[in-house]
Amino acid sequence: MSVAHSAGRLLLTLLLTEAGKTLGNAHSLCLDLTIKSQSRPGQPWCQVQGSMNTKPFIQYDSDSNKVKPLGFLGKEVNDTNVWTELSETLAEAGKELKMVLPVTKLDKKETRGPPTLQVKMCCQREAEQCSGASLHFSLNGRTALLLDTMSITWTVIDPGATGIKEEWENNQELAKYFRTISTGDCSYWLREFLKHWENMLLQRPQNH
């Protein structure tokens, strides 16, 4: 493994670790999307699981086209307007990502077959504002790219992803979409769900 690759993976680990933490008044919302270019009948081509402050609260799959609440927070917010908006956006995001998937390859040596794209989107809020947002892309299980959507800065984790980075970097509409959904939509969902966070903590059974 090259020094650059090792450094890239270290940077990614640090950023994702921070994204999943709740430090002081900071809160995080992360959505893990798995997109398949092809799927067998009865199997979803898109699956999503979301967590707030590392606690899973939502699950979605394209086969049922429905979202399932998880845990206390999921039950607390699944009848809200923001839950409906999040559900609709997840379906749209899956379709957007599936459109770029067929032309996405890490390198010429990559094993042939239908590609699978994994995207981890995280946003953080602190002091009543969005304090961070990022998207982490993996292809067929290989860590590829990291996008800091606050500054629109791309970091290549796998050298084979350089071509993808250059193509996506030059696609202004795609970059705008990534920024909007992470710093705008994600931050808004997090802000709204935080209103229910205290209720979730109060309703959580106490261990004796």
Automatic annotation (TrEMBL):
<keyword id="KW-1015">Disulfide bond</keyword>
<dbReference type="GO" id="GO:0002486">
    <property type="term" value="P:antigen processing and presentation of endogenous peptide antigen via MHC class I via ER pathway, TAP-independent"/>
</dbReference>
<keyword id="KW-0325">Glycoprotein</keyword>
<dbReference type="Pfam" id="PF00129">
    <property type="entry name" value="MHC_I"/>
</dbReference>
<dbReference type="GO" id="GO:0002476">
    <property type="term" value="P:antigen processing and presentation of endogenous peptide antigen via MHC class Ib"/>
</dbReference>
<dbReference type="GO" id="GO:0046703">
    <property type="term" value="F:natural killer cell lectin-like receptor binding"/>
</dbReference>
<feature type="domain" description="MHC class I-like antigen recognition-like">
    <location>
        <begin position="26"/>
        <end position="199"/>
    </location>
</feature>
<protein>
    <recommendedName>
        <fullName>MHC class I-like antigen recognition-like domain-containing protein</fullName>
    </recommendedName>
</protein>
<keyword id="KW-0472">Membrane</keyword>
<dbReference type="InterPro" id="IPR050208">
    <property type="entry name" value="MHC_class-I_related"/>
</dbReference>
<dbReference type="InterPro" id="IPR011161">
    <property type="entry name" value="MHC_I-like_Ag-recog"/>
</dbReference>
<dbReference type="GO" id="GO:0006955">
    <property type="term" value="P:immune response"/>
</dbReference>
<dbReference type="GO" id="GO:0009897">
    <property type="term" value="C:external side of plasma membrane"/>
</dbReference>
<dbReference type="GO" id="GO:0005615">
    <property type="term" value="C:extracellular space"/>
</dbReference>
<dbReference type="InterPro" id="IPR011162">
    <property type="entry name" value="MHC_I/II-like_Ag-recog"/>
</dbReference>
<dbReference type="InterPro" id="IPR037055">
    <property type="entry name" value="MHC_I-like_Ag-recog_sf"/>
</dbReference>
<keyword id="KW-0732">Signal</keyword>
<feature type="signal peptide">
    <location>
        <begin position="1"/>
        <end position="26"/>
    </location>
</feature>
<dbReference type="GO" id="GO:0001916">
    <property type="term" value="P:positive regulation of T cell mediated cytotoxicity"/>
</dbReference>
